[in-house]
Amino acid sequence: MIKKVNRIVISRTDSIGDVALTLPMAGILKTKFPDATIIFLGNTYTEPIINCSSEIEEVWCWADLQKMEEQAQIKWLKNQNIDVFIHVFPRREIARLAQKAKIKYRIGTAHRLFHLLTCNYRVNFSRKNSMLHESQLNIKLLAPFGITKLYPLKTLSKQAQFNRIPTLPQKFKSLLSTEKKNLIFHPKSKGSALEWGVDNFIALSKKLSKYELFFTGTEEEAASFREKLPDMAHIHDLSGKMSLEELIAFIHAADGLMAASTGPLHIAGLSNIKTIGLFTPRKPLHFGRWQPLGDHVLILEEKTISERNELLNIEVDFVQKAIERFLI
């Protein structure tokens, strides 16, 4: 069992939601090793999410390391005096780099063949057929530290320490109502989830004039809904107008957010605003695996499983009533 460490790297170089659900690992490690430095290796575009956790003291971007020649990568990593390297998202090239840099403790799943040669601690668990939440599965990788308990989701939410929120620029702050609830609709998912459909979001938006509604998404995503948005005073289009830092700050300042299983849904959950997730019961996309962490989460699930590549089968009226009850 690993008992004494000073510098720990958590490596997860995939998407926003996956990274958000890995942040509790930093808090659990900090509780176990309060004097240790927690470092997160991620993608450049997820850095704003990582920076929100006060348990993480250094953020490394994989793209910066990729610019170096291999020997320069190895030398640089050796100079960081890392004790532990945890491969939460397995990548062959990163696993080889940690091994060549002779990091003392290299932890990864036993279900990757390349970890046989690159990791000296291989944890045997399967994500594919598990009923556990993604954040709980991540914590399985901490078994070499003697951390084997199953943490409740509420505990994991607090362990993320998602409290270093960027400042919201005044141009966006001024859009938020002080008299009505401010609700964000994030209709797209970049293909990471089964979606409810833009037309359903728009139909619902017409029925919710008691709220200020803000549609968000990337500029590319906006092409699928911007021209369809109703010209109504309570509906606002913020798609393609915010950086990720600004979106995080805006979500944190709003009253609620509704989306399928995508990055902004997890940001909302960790921000402890009213978070409404739209899910299918189909595995492995079901809410048991991917629901947002947080104290104010409502899951709306389709009753009959939709066909593959179709939209979530949830009635607009049902969603309207659920929102109106939840946002009281």
Automatic annotation (TrEMBL):
Which keywords fit this entry according to its UniProt record? Glycosyltransferase, Transferase
Mind telling me what this protein is named?
Answer: Glycosyl transferase family 9
> CDD domains, from UniProt?
GT9_LPS_heptosyltransferase
The transmembrane residues are: none
Checking Gene3D superfamilies in the record gives: Glycogen Phosphorylase B
GO biological-process terms attached to the record: lipopolysaccharide core region biosynthetic process
Q: Name one Pfam family in it.
A: Glyco_transf_9
- Example of a GO MF term: ADP-heptose-lipopolysaccharide heptosyltransferase activity
Looking at the UniProt record for this protein, which Gene Ontology cellular component terms does it annotate, in alphabetical order?
A: cytosol
